[in-house]
Design a protein that fits this description.
Blueprint (H helix, E strand, L loop, with lengths): L1 H16 L4 H11 L4 H32 L2 H28 L4 H4 L18 H16 L3 H20 L5 H30 L2
Helix pairs in contact: 3-4, 3-6, 3-7, 4-6, 4-8, 6-7, 6-8, 7-8
């Protein structure tokens, strides 16, 4: 785990210390230019609804567990929820540590902002929490009908953030890595949490 943290921090400092490479801005420019009605609408919906889905799924799981008096589902909801919350905390800490400008701020002549954000660019918080949700759901229910749609949704979130003009590819890749890493680490954290909360 320490190696992962140091790797992410190293990438953070490298990214904050250099300008976006040509391939990065070229990639953002290309994806930002996808302008068909369906693609633009799909990306906008995916991008805007991500926070509600990332919070809503574990809350819905917890409510279902409460209604059904299902202790195992409640444990799963706790794992999924703490994975998303932990990822959010790590991501936003790194954002302000790295303080990278958004693509539309640095390259206003090449990137059109279809939405704007107040926080720094690196890493992508939407992508991180989307991958945290997808990974934690896949860990708790390793079935193809959970893994495939959740992975597709998480990848769509990452692409949508570039289509919106608010993230570079490295922001998205780092966000995905953080989301997956935090969710996998949270497997071990939740073992302790379950013993503390449920006595097992």
């Amino acid at each position: 785990m320490n190696r992962v943290v140091w790797f992410v921090l190293s990438v953070c400092f490298v990214v904050s210390g250099i300008h976006a490479q040509n391939w990065e801005i070229n990639t953002v420019h290309r994806i930002n230019s996808w302008d068909s009605g369906f693609v633009r609408s799909y990306n906008k919906v995916v991008s805007r609804t991500e926070p509600y889905v990332a919070v809503g799924v574990p809350v819905a799981m917890a409510l279902a567990a409460w209604v059904r008096h299902d202790r195992e589902l409640l444990k799963d909801a706790l794992y999924v929820g703490t994975s998303v919350v932990g990822t959010f905390a790590v991501t936003y800490g790194l954002k302000y540590l790295c303080d990278r400008q958004r693509p539309y701020e640095r390259y206003p002549d090449r990137v059109h902002p279809f939405s704007t954000e107040d926080s720094p660019s690196f890493p992508s918080g939407h992508t991180a929490t989307a991958f945290a949700l997808a990974t934690s759901l896949s860990v708790k229910c390793p079935k193809w009908y959970v893994i495939a749609p959740s992975a597709l949704w998480a990848c769509s979130v990452g692409v949508s953030r570039m289509n919106e003009g608010v993230h570079y590819p490295t922001d998205v890749l780092a966000g995905a890595a953080i989301g997956v890493g935090c969710s996998l680490a949270n497997v071990y954290i939740n073992r302790w949490l379950n013993r503390w909360l449920f006595g097992d």
